[in-house]
Structure formats: C-alpha cells, structure tokens
Design goal:
The protein is built from 15 helices and 14 strands. The strands form two sheets. The chain has an eight-stranded mixed sheet, sandwiched between helices. Helix 11 runs parallel beside helix 12. The relative contact order is 0.12.
C-alpha cells in the first residue's frame, strides 16, 4: 500500500474507516455530486500531490469514443501481456461490482484491497478539506492500485465522466474508437465540439490514432492534434480476422488495439535499444546480407509466433459486450448496446449467428434508459431487421444502477405501441423477471435465442436474476 502523509500544514483528519459494503454505499451516493471539469482537475491535482504525484509514475493510454472502448482496452491488454508487460486496465462502467473496473492482467481487485484504497483516498481528501465525488475517488484508487502493483502500462477507458479525473496523467497515446453521428443531428460544428471533448487532454508529443471511418471526423481530429503538438498516426482501415462472427463485430476494435500496442512497444518500450522477449510487434532492424545456415536452422527449429497466429487464438470474453451464453437453454446473448451505432452492430451479429445456425425462435428483451437515443431510427432498424428475421420484442423498464450511464427508464408501454406500429410482434412487461420468463418460453429450448440488450442496467438485472453477485 502507498501511505503518504498529506502536506496541508494543518492537522491530519482521521477519516471514518469504511468496510467494503460501506464504501460501495459511499460510491453509490456520490455519483450525483457533479463538478465542472476544471473543479475535478483541481481537486485531483491536490490529491495527486498528496500521494507524491503518483499520476506521473506510470505510462498511460487513454481510449475514448462512443462505442467499443472496453473491447479495445480488453484486446490491447491481451496483446501487451503477450509482449511480456504487466497491464493495468480501468473499465467503465461495471456490471455487478465496482471491482470490475480495476484489473491487472485480467485479474479483478479483491474486496479487502478495494476497501483499503478507498479509505486511503477518502482520508486524504477529507484532510484536504473536501469529500471526493465517485469519479475522483475511483480514479485516484485506480492510480494507487496500479502503482502499488508496479504495472508497466495503464489502459484507461476515458469516458465523459472519468476523462477530467484522469487528465493529470501524461498519456502517451490517445485512441478514439469512433464518433457516432446518428443519435443526434451532427454537423461540422457539433463534430468539432465532440472531438474537442474527446481530445481535450492531449499533451505535446502524445500519439493519436482512431478507428473512425468518417473523412470529416478524421480531418477534424488531424487538425486538432497538430494544433496541440500531438503526433497523428494513420487511422485504422483493416479488420483483424477474429473467429466468426466476431471479425465483423469487433475486428476494428482489435485492429485499433494492435495499433495502440505497436505504437507503445516500438516508440516507448523499445526506445533506447531495449527489446521485449518473444515479441509479436517489435520492428527489428533488418540484417544485412543473407541469413546464415545456422540462423535458418534455428528459425525452423524455433519458429517465431506471429501476430496473425495470436489473433486466431483470441476470442472476446468481455462481460456484456456481445456475450453469448450458449450453454444456457435457450441460448442467451447479452449486449449493453444503448445507441443506434451499437444496435446496428448487435443486429448484424444476430443475423450472422442466424446464418451459421438457423434460429428456431428469437426474442429481444429490450430495456433502455438513454434519453438521447433517436427512437425513430431504432424503430426503423428493428422494422428492417424483423422483415428478414422472424422474431419478437419484449420491452421492460430498467432499474437505474449507480455508476452506469443512463437516465430514467423508457416508458415500456409507449415503446411497445411504437414497435407494434412498425408491424413487429411486441409486448410489454412490468419488470425484467416477467420479460425474461416470457422470452424463455417463446423460443425453442435447444435452438432458440433470447437477446437481452438496451443498456448496461438490463445486463445487471439479468445476472441478479440468475443469483450471480460478481462476474
């Protein structure tokens, strides 16, 4: 643990020591406390100084964008671990417990250490004269956790709430998955505003790479990066050939992850001649002349594993992101899609599953709480989808989960009537339990599929319904 006395010039405040449950209650309560980005940055700077400027002790990589942030971090962590690095990952949001946000080499933090870190940060903040928000608390806890375990690199999912809290980190790389313009009316001005927000914390010399496919978006990014002294890397074009059907769904996230890892390994890790053993990504200087017979023999005896071979063995295993539970009867598909772009990907994935193995019954359990989603566009997507794929929709209200994005649940009755107006078979349910029970009975036990989607909250409700307390 890192124990630093806070240099305030006054008496040290002895904070109440909270157990794990009390700390979770503290976090649940303090999401509603909102500060401006400037206020958060100022408070985080004071906390950072209290902990001996811990934000500058480890390299960090920020991943932002509308969709695919968690998957990109997940894939990048696996590539970097393959390179021999110890990787800390900070995810947002969580599904069941706050612990899910803190991982080292895919291992989640335990309750005891989580509580210790939380108490340490709250105590430091109270000594400085303020109560931290949940964003500030979790961000500083993450930095303490990763530093105390001496990770080599920290990957941060820098969503709208956490980006200001982590702004004091000197990120080596900023990655943007994509910018979605279909939930709201986007023009050049609004695109520029959104990209400004995503790239607000670039420092001179930081690398920036994006998987966005819009020429307008990429041009705006390029201009902003150059104006702030960053280094613009070529955007992602290819898809990584993952196993079916994930190439079409997650291939671009994997390609962005590979590029992030390659930039970090070749620009920062191997700078100065340090070479990582058994590397997939290191660009070694070419040998002059033909290889010797001995070199050829050694190459044949000990063939070097390639990055292509690595991707053939990788499958997505991130909870709630097109997660297929094919051992359930009927099969269950969980996806926290909560905007138009994400729903397009989800419906494409269902269609690809149907192509591989015809479904005998399909029911979509839909629970949404994103007030900014363009509902008319979602209805059009569903109408087009169900013209080509037989199935039905059950709409249910969802519970607001602290720490997850989203507002009040949609009106299930109203949305159901709108879906019926598109000539789609639909019904509403009073709650998730009722919706899921009906959905299970509506499809074939062996070859049917129940899809649960619309937000992270409905994924949480599924696991709670199953009696699962942690992932």
């Amino acid at each position: 643990m890192i124990n630093k006395q806070v240099a305030t010039g006054g008496n040290i405040v002895v904070s109440k020591q909270r157990n794990y449950g009390e700390l979770v209650e503290f976090l649940d309560t303090n999401w509603s406390v909102i500060h401006t980005a400037e206020e958060t940055a100022s408070r985080m700077k004071r906390l950072d100084q209290a902990f001996d400027t811990i934000s500058q002790k480890k390299d960090t990589i920020f991943v932002g964008g509308i969709n695919g942030k968690s998957l990109t971090i997940h894939f990048a962590s696996r590539v970097l671990r393959e390179e021999g690095l110890q990787v800390g990952t900070f995810y947002s949001p969580h599904i069941l417990t706050y612990n899910e946000r803190f991982c080292i080499d895919n291992e989640i933090i335990n309750n005891k250490l989580f509580a210790e870190l939380g108490n340490e940060v709250i105590g430091a903040a109270e000594t400085l004269g303020f109560v931290p928000t949940s964003y500030e608390l979790l961000s500083m806890m993450a930095l303490l956790f990763f530093n105390s375990h001496n990770v080599d690199i920290i990957l941060i999912e820098a969503d709208q709430g956490f980006a200001p809290a982590f702004a004091l980190c000197n990120a080596k790389i900023h990655a943007i998955t994509r910018i979605n313009g279909e939930d709201v009316e986007f023009n050049e001005e609004s695109v520029r505003s959104e990209i400004n927000r995503l790239l607000a914390y670039i420092k001179p010399g930081a690398h920036v790479v994006s998987a966005d496919q819009s020429k307008l978006n990429l041009q705006v990014m390029l201009e902003l990066v150059e104006a702030r002294g960053g280094i613009w890397d070529m955007p992602i074009r290819k898809l990584i050939p993952l196993e079916y059907p994930f190439e079409q769904l997650h291939g671009r996230c994997a390609a962005l992850a590979e590029r992030i890892s390659s930039i970090y390994i070749n620009t920062f890790v191997n700078k100065g001649g340090v070479v990582v053993n058994k590397t997939l990504l290191t660009k070694l200087k070419g040998q002059r002349g033909r290889p010797t017979l001995e070199a050829k023999r050694q190459s044949e005896l000990h063939p070097k594993r390639t990055v292509e071979q690595f991707w053939k063995e990788v499958s997505s295993s991130l909870a709630g992101r097109f997660q297929i539970l094919d051992k359930e009867k009927p099969s269950i598909l969980l996806d926290n899609a909560n905007n138009i772009d994400a729903f397009k990907n989800l419906l494409l994935g269902i269609r690809l599953l149907h192509y591989r193995r015809p479904l005998k019954g399909l029911t979509l359990v839909l629970g949404c709480n994103n007030i900014n989603m363009n509902q008319s566009e979602l209805l059009k997507l569903l109408r087009y989808f169900f013209k080509k794929t037989s199935g039905s929709v059950i709409v249910c209200p969802v519970e607001k989960i602290p720490g997850q994005s989203g507002d009040a649940s949609w009106d299930a009755e109203q949305v159901t009537n709108d879906i019926k107006g598109m000539k789609i078979k639909a019904r509403s349910a009073k709650n998730f339990k009722e919706a899921f029970d009906v959905a299970q009975k509506s499809v074939d036990e062996r070859h049917g599929l129940v899809v649960i989607a619309g937000c992270s909250s409905i994924i949480t409700e599924y696991w709670r319904y199953k009696g699962i307390k942690k992932l």
